[in-house]
């Protein structure tokens, strides 16, 4: 992937904090939910409840599809990312702490001391590391429906 496209992807990741992630239920039906995310380079992280449907789905099949985008009044300003990826639970406590720190940094306007609930610890939530295999970069400024496809491999 060339440096300009990599920078475009990283900028889009930096500009957003939520994504729609699709997992597969054991019966084969897809389930799409909205989650907050943080990233370290092209690796994304999200968290969910220990026994959530997402966590159960990912224990069965770790493949995900996701989108990151936003609404715009200008048709030709539509941009965003979609990815095919694998989501693995974060087991390493140091990595989990790093992710929770990144999460706090992603919301600088939030005074966590004024939250009505405690910030989670690695024991309270399931944290997933999302490793993309294919990234599609949508950029209408380059033409209606223009996408650049990046194949990362099937890690």
TrEMBL record:
<dbReference type="GO" id="GO:0070967">
    <property type="term" value="F:coenzyme F420 binding"/>
</dbReference>
<protein>
    <submittedName>
        <fullName>Pyridoxamine 5'-phosphate oxidase-related FMN-binding</fullName>
    </submittedName>
</protein>
<dbReference type="GO" id="GO:0005829">
    <property type="term" value="C:cytosol"/>
</dbReference>
<dbReference type="InterPro" id="IPR011576">
    <property type="entry name" value="Pyridox_Oxase_N"/>
</dbReference>
<dbReference type="GO" id="GO:0016627">
    <property type="term" value="F:oxidoreductase activity, acting on the CH-CH group of donors"/>
</dbReference>
<feature type="domain" description="Pyridoxamine 5'-phosphate oxidase N-terminal">
    <location>
        <begin position="7"/>
        <end position="136"/>
    </location>
</feature>
<dbReference type="InterPro" id="IPR012349">
    <property type="entry name" value="Split_barrel_FMN-bd"/>
</dbReference>
<dbReference type="Pfam" id="PF01243">
    <property type="entry name" value="PNPOx_N"/>
</dbReference>
<keyword id="KW-0560">Oxidoreductase</keyword>
<dbReference type="InterPro" id="IPR052019">
    <property type="entry name" value="F420H2_bilvrd_red/Heme_oxyg"/>
</dbReference>
